[in-house]
Specification:
- The protein is of the alpha+beta class.
- The chain has two domains: 218 residues, Protein of unknown function DUF2961 (Jelly Rolls); 163 residues, Jelly Rolls, CATH 2.60.120.1390.
- Helices cover 17% and strands 32% of the residues.
- The longest helix has 52 residues.
- The chain starts with 17 loop residues before the first strand and ends with a helix.
Length: 453
């Protein structure tokens, strides 16, 4: 028995473990190391046989709509790295971000022989990208890495990671559901371990769900936060609280990310967190304010810490929303039968704001409570719409008319050529989806040969 302790003690002990990886690497041996995820389609990133545990997920993605023909040849451009997806050359490429594709795409995870998912969350929100608006994040379980020139844009490409361990006994299946009308590119590495011995009956499986209320049901949104009329209203049972998580089962809640868009112009906090454990009528864990639950105080500040912090500060976001996180890594909240995690939206729920959240927890299987998401049109962030411009053209010269006609003619040739490249890459994606699962099966079979009977 080892007496070694510390955060990295696992590195000091040799284990009978085999590593595996699901990835988007180009299995033709070329450098097109990404998948073009088709529009309106579900793609399996891979299925892995257990027992095992996913230890690390990395992804980066981009989604752009082609506006008009580029000067770059569409076939030649398709054979190079998709650098124009990140920073299109000025004057050479005319396409633009789909600003909300992070909300239009879902990540789905299913464990063992279940017929229902344990994770079903918009892709961006799963990785703490609130409102499809990335901000740099440096927490212990999640990171987001954003280029400086991409900051301040909805739908900006970035690198994301997740280090939450995700054990499975029989099978792990990870899928991407693209509910967009556009394909998007996805690079990914999903690292996992394989074990010979089955996981114990006490194994808790990773879960995540997403929730949104727009607006929250406030009884006095026109009353200023901290006004005495509000502060003297009582709320003992958490009626009409915003609900982050409400599930049956046995396990532990391990945290959330939270996006709040405030409309009053005062302050959106002051709402207490309330935890109802195993059917309690009154919460046994009762907090002192939303900012306090987020481990901050006197409002929220610009910071990133291992277990809590602010990803996008309301003073820095384009439309005044705040994205924060709180992870219960060393202080998980345990439950035997049921847990309900809630927060007041303003004291006693007097504010009518927009709240979105992703909750993370572990529990024994089966996943009793169904995890669902609203339709895609109900997930899109609310942003101001620019007024439509009314353009008046001057009188056209013969050269102008000719230029317009040539431009449209080039678009007629360019668009189908570009679309054909999308279809080619989508077919590659479907093929490599099958190959990923086949390779994982072969790797498992090879590992099983070394099983000590």
């Amino acid at each position: 028995m080892s007496n070694i302790s510390g955060l990295f003690k696992n590195l000091t002990k040799v284990k009978d473990v085999r590593n595996g990886r699901l990835a988007s690497w180009d299995q033709r041996g070329k450098n097109q190391d990404y998948w073009e995820i088709p529009a309106k389609e579900t793609i399996t990133l891979g299925e892995v046989e257990g027992p095992g545990c996913i230890t690390h997920i990395w992804m980066t993605s981009s989604c752009r709509r082609v506006i008009k023909p580029a000067i770059i040849d569409p076939v030649m451009n398709a054979q190079s790295a998709p650098v124009n997806e990140v920073g299109p050359a000025l004057g050479l490429v005319w396409d633009d971000y789909d600003p909300f594709y992070y909300r239009k795409v879902l990540i789905k995870m299913t464990w063992d022989d279940q017929d229902k998912p344990s994770v079903l969350v918009p892709l961006g929100d799963f990785f703490c990208i609130g409102n499809s608006y990335p901000g740099n994040l440096n927490s212990l379980p999640f990171t987001v890495s954003l280029k400086p020139e991409e900051q301040g844009r909805y739908g900006a490409p970035c690198g994301v990671t997740c280090y939450f361990p995700m054990p499975f006994n029989k099978k792990a299946k990870i899928e991407i559901i693209n509910e967009n009308d556009l394909p998007f590119i996805l690079y990914f590495n999903i690292d996992y371990e394989m074990y010979h011995e089955p996981l114990g009956d006490d194994t808790a499986y990773f879960h995540a769900c997403w929730h949104r209320e727009n607006p929250t049901k406030g009884w006095g949104p026109d009353i200023q936060v901290n006004a005495p009329e509000v502060n003297n209203v009582t709320n003992f049972k958490g009626e009409n609280n915003y609900v982050l998580l409400d599930v049956d089962g046995e396990g532990q809640y391990v945290g959330c990310n939270l996006t709040v868009k405030h409309y009053q112009g005062s302050w959106w906090g002051e709402g207490n967190d309330m935890f109802f454990i195993d059917g309690e009528e009154y919460p046994s864990l009762n907090g002192t304010g939303t900012e306090d639950y987020l481990n901050q105080g006197w409002g929220v500040q610009r910071n990133n810490f291992p277990f809590f912090g602010t990803i996008v500060h309301e003073a820095d976001s384009p439309h005044g929303f705040n994205v924060a996180y709180r992870f219960h890594i060393t202080d998980p909240v345990h439950f035997k039968k049921h847990i309900k995690v809630t927060i007041e939206h303003g004291h006693a729920n007097h504010l009518s704001d927009e709240w979105c959240s992703t909750a993370y927890w572990y529990q024994k299987l089966p996943t009793v409570t169904d995890i669902t998401v609203p339709p895609v049109e109900e997930r899109i962030p609310v942003v101001p719409i620019e007024p439509e411009r009314k353009l008046e053209k001057p009188e056209l010269t013969d050269e102008m008319v000719e230029a317009l006609e040539k431009y449209e003619k080039r678009w007629e040739a360019y668009k189908p050529a570009r679309e054909e490249q999308f279809r080619i890459k989508e077919q590659k994606c479907r093929k490599e989806s099958r190959l990923n699962t086949e390779f994982a099966h072969e790797l498992r079979a090879e590992y099983n040969k070394n099983d000590v009977k």
